[in-house]
Amino acid sequence: MRIIATSLICSTLLVSGCSSVSYDTAHKLRINGDVVTVQCESSMSTVTEHEKLKWGRNIATPILTVATVGLAPIIIGANAALDYVDRKNASNMLESCGKNPLNEEQILADVGTNAMVNVALGAVDVGGVLSPVSSNAAN
Known about the structure:
Elements: H1 2-16, H2 21-31, H3 38-43, H4 47-67, H5 72-96, H6 104-120
């Protein structure tokens, strides 16, 4: 039963097209025409790595959770750390592009919320982004 539930959640994640907060922030900055300086463009050079990490997490987390139930705390901790790094990178991008950075307390609250959701769902990141540039607890 757990394998079926994990498969359904994993399929939903892949179809929903969830992406990293860094990617969504860069996309919004480009759409709004906010990428006007070399420093701003340079700050976006890490977006590809964050996007790869996010997709890797989306695929590996459910598989590792089912395969190694005892490692769930480690998986949740690793996901929380990568989530924080992604959000902090998005905040740095905003600042490099002359925008207000994300609030550190909100970043930590969102990472904590995501970790709790991961615990509740068996360490499966629910993905999805509510607002491309603001920090959010749904990613």
